[in-house]
Structure formats: C-alpha cells, structure tokens
C-alpha cells in the first residue's frame, strides 16, 4: 500500500498546542488511476486512555472536564464525562497511563492491562490511542488528583457503579468515544467471560 502514496508537499498551517498540516500527495486508487489530493491533518500526537475499576465495590472512576470543541458543536455546557486519558511524552504507553491516572485522579496503580489500539478520527487526526483497563482500591488513593495547574486542567473525579456509568451511554450523558469503547469492552468481558471484571452487577 505504501508504494501507492507519494507525499509531494507538507505545509504547516498552525503550530500552537498541536500542529495542523496541509498535505499534498499523490495516490493510486483502487482502479489504478493517479489521484492528486490535498488534506488537512491534525498532528496531535499519540495518547493513552484507561478505565479504572474496583472489583469489590463494582465501581468505575471517570472524570468530567470542559471540552470547548464540543461546546462549539451543540454541547450546551461543554462538559464531558470521560475515562482518564492523556498524551504520550517520550515514554511507553504503560508509563504514560500510570502517570495520567495519578495526575488526573490521585490514584497510584502499578498494574495496567492494554486491551487495544485505535485511531479515533482517521480522516483528519493522526492520533492513535492505546486503551487500558486497571483495577484500583481505596488504598491506592494518594492525593486529590484533578490535573495539573500548569496545564490549566480543571478535572472533577466521578466514582460510580458500572451500571450507572454504562447507563449514561444510553441517556447521552456519556458521548466520548474512548469512554464508550472501554465501557463496552468491560460489558463484553462481563458477558463473555466466566471470571468477570466486576463480580456482581
């Protein structure tokens, strides 16, 4: 497939928090025709996301924060309920998600399980996310969390039952794709495995 694509020109349109590029390229399509195309690509870097769960209490930890792009697209409050997530910073995905869990939720966990990798919006954004699940206990809570002041993060920590969290997909209270994917992963695991992630729902 790579031999069908030739990058002709890349031009940076914006280089503030992330980099937005205009990419000109040639592509030999499925009919063998040479196409000359232009696309804008948002180079946001790769990231990590995790569903924190408590096996004994049958709960999950989610976060809520302002997402201004959603406010500009019909979300009246701009607030989103999500799993803990963040960007890779010259580190392994496992290291990054453990760091993000501590910064955002205040929990210190040492064991995380990777469940998948996925591109969220491949038509415009280059980012690939590494998805994890991780078990937490009350003993793992070391500080308040809430994000980093230097990154202007204002994060509310939400602990709720798995049923409540999963129900928020149907009500529309959870509309974040990575959160839905990880909650669905947990739901499938519960239904398909003899040893459930959550003991009793």
In short:
The chain is an alpha+beta fold. Helices cover 21% and strands 38% of the residues. It has two domains: 2-43, no CATH class; 47-192, Nucleoside Triphosphate Pyrophosphohydrolase, CATH 3.90.79.10.
Can you offer a commentary on this structure?
The chain is α+β, with helices and mostly antiparallel strands. It is 21% helix and 38% strand. It contains four helices and ten strands. The strands form two sheets. Strands 4, 5, 6, 7, 8, 9 and 10 form a seven-stranded mixed beta sheet that branches. The chain has a three-stranded antiparallel beta sheet with strand order 1-2-3, with no helix packed on it. The chain is elongated. The termini are far apart. The model has no long low-confidence stretch (mean pLDDT 89).
Distance between the termini: 46 Å
What class would the helix/strand composition place it in? alpha+beta
Strand content: 35-45%
CATH class of the largest domain: Alpha Beta
What is the CATH homologous superfamily assignment of the largest domain?
Answer: Nucleoside Triphosphate Pyrophosphohydrolase
* Secondary-structure element string: EEEEEHEEHEEEHH
Name the quaternary structure. single chain
* CATH fold-level assignment of the largest domain: Nucleoside Triphosphate Pyrophosphohydrolase
Query: How many beta-strand runs?
Result: 10
Percent helix, as a range, is 10-25%
The total count of helices amounts to 4
Rounded to the nearest angstrom, the radius of gyration is 19 Å
Tell me, rounded to a whole number, the average pLDDT: 89
Uncertain spans: none
What composes the largest sheet? 7 strands, mixed
- What is the number of domains? 2
User: What would you call the shape?
Assistant: elongated
By CATH, the architecture of the largest domain is named: Alpha-Beta Complex
């Amino acid at each position: 497939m790579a031999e069908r694509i030739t990058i002709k020109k890349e031009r940076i349109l914006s280089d503030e928090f992330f980099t937005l590029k205009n990419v000109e390229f040639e592509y030999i399509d499925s009919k063998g025709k040479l196409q000359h195309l232009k696309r804008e690509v948002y180079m946001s870097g790769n990231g990590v996301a995790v569903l924190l769960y408590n096996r004994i209490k049958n709960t999950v930890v989610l976060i809520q924060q302002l997402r201004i792009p959603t406010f500009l697209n019909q979300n009246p409050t701009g607030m989103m309920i999500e799993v803990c997530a963040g960007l890779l910073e010259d580190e392994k995905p496992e290291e990054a998600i453990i760091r993000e869990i501590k910064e955002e939720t205040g929990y210190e966990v040492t064991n995380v399980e990777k469940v998948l990798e996925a591109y969220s919006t491949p038509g415009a954004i280059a980012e690939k996310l590494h998805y994890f699940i991780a078990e937490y206990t009350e003993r793992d809570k070391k500080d308040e969390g809430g994000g980093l002041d230097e990154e202007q993060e204002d994060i509310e920590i939400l602990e709720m039952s798995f049923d409540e969290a999963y129900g928020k997909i149907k009500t529309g209270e959870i509309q974040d794709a990575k959160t839905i994917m990880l909650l669905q992963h947990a739901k499938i695991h519960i239904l398909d495995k003899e040893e459930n992630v959550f003991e009793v729902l």
